[in-house]
Amino acid sequence: MTMMRWLVVLAISLSASARAATEVDVAVYEFPPYYSMHFEQHVVGELVKVLNDYQNQYSFRLKVIPPNWRYRALSATGCCDVIFFEAYEWGWKQRHIDVEQTVPLIKSHNRFVTLKTPQREQDFFAHKQGKRIGGMAGYVYNFTDGETDVQYLEKHYNMYLSDSQITNLRLLRNRRLDFAIINEELLATLANSDSDYGDNILMSEKQDGEYLLRILVGANKAITAATMQQLLREVGSTGEIDRIIRQFNLERYQIYRPRVYR
C-alpha cells in the first residue's frame, strides 16, 4: 500500500470513528453555579468539556431548557438523555418519570437570605408574613411542601418567581424583595469570585431542607447510569472532578470523592 493510499484509509477511519460517537443531550436549566447564562463558566459546562476530552465514544452537548421542563425532557419522548446535578426528590417520583441515578455527588441546602442592615439579625427570618419572597419558577422548595404552581405560590406565599437567582439577588439589594431563597453553592461560588452579588447579604442559620445532587439518566436513552458512573470514576481518577469542585469553591458540599491516581 502506497503512503498516499494509507493516509486516505487513515483519514476515512478517523472520520468514521468521529461519526460513531453517540450524542448525549444534557438538559441544563438556570441553576448556578451548575449552569447559568449569567456565568462565563459553570460546573456542568466544565464537566462536559472534561468528559468529551477524555473519551470519544460519547459526545456530550448541552441543551438549555426552563426548570419546569426538565421532567418532560427526560421522559420517554423527551429531548434529552441526562441531567447533571439534580435531586431525585425534586418531584421526579411524583411525576412518574422513569430515571436511573448515579451515586450522590453533592449534598447541600437552600437558605433564606435578606439584605444586611444594622437592625437585622437572625430573628428577622422568623417573620415572613406579609413579606415579599423571591424564588425561581420551576424550583422545588421545602418550605412550600414542593408546590411549584406559580399562581398558588404567589397567592399563599407572596412569592415573586423569576428566571434567575442573580436577578433575585439584584432585586434584594434594591429593596424590591424582603427575602430570597438561594442555594448554598451559589453563595459559596459568589464568595470566591469578583462578583459583588453576594455582598451585604445576611444568610439564615436555618436550612430550608437538604438535597442530594446526582446525575439522572432517562430510561432507554443514549447512555445508562452505570456507564455514566463509570465515566465519572475514570475522569475522577485523573483529578479533574476535584479540580472543578475547587474552581467553584464547592469542596464543603462534595460527597463523591473518586480515588485519584497520580
TrEMBL record:
User: Which keywords does the record carry?
Assistant: Signal
Point out the signal peptide segment: 1-20
- Asked if Signal is a keyword of the record, the answer is yes
Q: Which Gene3D superfamilies match?
A: Periplasmic binding protein-like II
Instruction: State the protein's name.
Output: Amino acid ABC transporter substrate-binding protein
Q: Which organism is it from?
A: Idiomarina xiamenensis 10-D-4
